[in-house]
Amino acid sequence: QVQLVQSGAEVKKPGSSVKVSCKASGDTLSNLAISWVRQAPGQGPEWMGGIIPLFRSISYAQMFRGRLTITADESSSTAYMELTSLRSEDTAVYYCARRLGIGWFHPWGQGTLVTVSS
Amino acid sequence: IVLTQSPGTLSLSPGERATLSCRASQSVSGNYLAWYQLKPGQAPRLLIYGASARATGIPDRFSGSGSGTDFTLTIGGLEPEDSAVYYCQQYVSSLALTFGGGTKVETK
Predict the structure, then answer these.
(1) Are B80 and B35 in contact (CB under 8 A)?
(2) What is the Cα–Cα distance from B50 to A59, expressed in whole angstroms?
(3) Most distant CA atoms of chain A, gap in Å
(4) Tens digit of pLDDT per residue, chain B (108 long)?
(5) Contacts of B30 in chain A (CB under 8 A)
(6) Average pLDDT over chain A, rounded to whole?
(7) What number of other Cβ atoms are within 10 A of residue B68's Cβ?
(8) Less Cβ around it within 10 Å: N or C end of chain B?
(9) pLDDT tens-place string over residues A4-41
C-alpha cells in the first residue's frame, strides 16, 4: 500500500521560501497523483495544487499561483512543494496526499509544520 | 463551492449517535463529496467518498448520505477513539477543491 513520508518542521522568516518533501513508497511516484493541502491554525484544510508525474501535469489553486511550485523526482520517488514570499499567514501544517478518482485524498502524509515568524 | 459544516462542536456520550452536517453553496454534482477524520499529530484519514462509499478499513458505524447541497456523516454508536475533527470536501471542480470548516466531536 502507498505510504507518504514528509520532511520535518521548518521555521522561516517572512519573505523567505520553504521547500517540503514527500517521499512515496508502495508504488512508483509516476503512477501517483500527489496533491498538497495545508491547514492553518483554527481553519479548515485548503487545497494548494497537485502533480501527476506520468502525464507531466501540474495544477495550482488560483490563490497560490505565482508563489507555489510543485515538482517530482521520480528517481527518488519524492514530490516537493516550494512556497515563496512567505508571510505570517502561511504558518500552517502542510500535507501531501495521494489524489484518487476525481478528487478525494488517501493516504495522507504525516504533515509538516511550517512556522513563519520574524 | 463553499462548504458549511454544523454544528461546530458535538459533545456526546459513548454509544450515542453523532450526526454531522455539511451544506454546499451550490449543488455538488455526482455526489462528489468526501469526509475525513483529523486527530492532532496524525495524518488525516479518509472515511467516505462519493458521499456514501466507505473507504477501506473504515468501521461500518461510519456512514455518509445526502445529495445536492446537503450531506450528512453519521457515526452510529460513538466510541472514545472517534474524538476528532471531521471535515467534508467537495471535488466537483478538479482545480477548485474545497473543504468545510470542520465539526469537532468530543466524547464525554
Answers:
(1) no
(2) 22
(3) 41
(4) 999 999 999 999 999 999 999 999 999 999 999 999 999 999 999 999 999 999 999 999 999 999 999 999 999 999 999 999 999 999 998 889 999 999 999 998
(5) 102
(6) 96
(7) 12
(8) C
(9) 999 999 999 999 999 999 999 999 998 899 999 999 99
Contact of B104 with chain A, judged by CB distance below 8 Å, is answered with no
Q: Is B97 an 8 Å CB contact of chain A? A: yes
Taking CB atoms and an 8 Å cutoff, what residues of chain B touch A46? 99
User: Chain A neighbours among B 7-46 (CB < 8 Å)?
Assistant: 30, 32, 34, 36, 38, 42-46
Residue where the block lists cell 458505524? B61
Beta carbons of A107 and B43 less than 8 Å apart? yes
- Do A58 and A41 meet the contact criterion of CB atoms below 8 Å apart? no
For residue A9, give the amino acid letter. Answer: A
Closest of A105, A51, A111 to residue B33, by C-alpha: A105
Cell of B106: 468530543
Is residue A99 within 8 Å of residue A2, measured between CB atoms? no
Our CA angle for B8, B14, B16, nearest 5°, is 70
